[in-house]
Amino acid sequence: MAIWNLGSINADIVYSVPHIPRAGETLASTGRSVFLGGKGANMSVAAARAAARVHHIGAVGVDGRWAVARLLEYGVDTTHIAEIDVETAQAIIAVDVRGENSIILHKGANAAIPQESLEQALTRAKTGDTFVFQNETTLQAEGAKLAREMGLEVAYAAAPFDANTVQAVLPHLDFLIFNEVEAEQLKSASGQGPADLPVKDVIVTLGANGATWFGADGETTVAAHKVTPVDTTGAGDTFTGYVLACLDRGQPMLQALQTASKAAALMVTRHGTADVIPDLKEVQDFSG
After folding, report:
1. For site-directed labelling of 204, which of 86, 118, 240, 265 has its Cα 20 to 30 A away?
2. 67-83 pLDDT tens trace
3. What SS3 class is residue 235?
4. What are the start-end ranges of the H helices in 95-179?
5. What would the pLDDT profile of 267-279 be if each residue is shown by its tens digit?
6. Residues of the domain holding 142
7. In 3D, which of 224, 264, 230, 1 has the Cα closest to residue 132?
8. pTM for the full model?
9. Burial of residue 26, with CB atoms counted within 10 A of its CB: 0-12 exposed, 13-18 middle, 19 or more buried
10. What is the CA radius of gyration of the chain?
11. Are residues 51 and 259 in contact, defined by beta-carbon separation less than 8 angstroms?
12. Residue 44 sits in a domain of what CATH number?
């Protein structure tokens, strides 16, 4: 089986700061690094490192060739990443001494993915493969509808969150993952809590408190591993990529969630995004 990811690709410019800047505050950073990022790229790398076969569908500008090369190096099929006349997306990330972050996104090429890239990619997909997307690119509704028509498992990581966007794609979804704040926002907008949604599997991530799975047999919570975080950036994407990869390899949901919880715990002990996502051996060896 395989995972087809309609996903964002960013240059993540990470600044280390004493605290997250307040409105009107000028703050000197204590460090600066540039990483491969974007929720989509992070999920592709995480799934590939969890031993899944991953095809990334997206776009970069000429300035993003290094990002495509990096994805390929990490085991992601980059055949369907278009190079277009729009600059590669960027994320400006401030990370404080507690590991909390603040992020500014510039959409760039993520907002201009050619429809033919999506269509050509999915002609190679097979029934039972997984199609995943996030709210950082164009073509979300088109991709979800086409993937469902082709018999793929359709998964949505609903971030950055927008209630209208989620409701537009709900009829096509088999798998939905978002955090507890986003779950409350969707309930306020639609009147539906996680257990009420017309989706086979709904996962609500709870940060340091783990994650809750709403499935056919009811509600199950998986605990998080206790670690000292240094950077929470990309932890949710790592969790999602690992869950989908484990499911793609035939693991039951509970086991997939437990594996993903380990991966996310390791991720928050590292500075960076896609470049530092743990591989499967590291996750299997982790006993925290």
Report:
1. 118
2. 999 999 999 999 999 99
3. helix
4. 115-122, 140-149, 163-169
5. 999 988 899 999 9
6. 3-8+39-83+111-278
7. 1
8. 0.92
9. exposed
10. 18
11. no
12. 3.40.1190.20
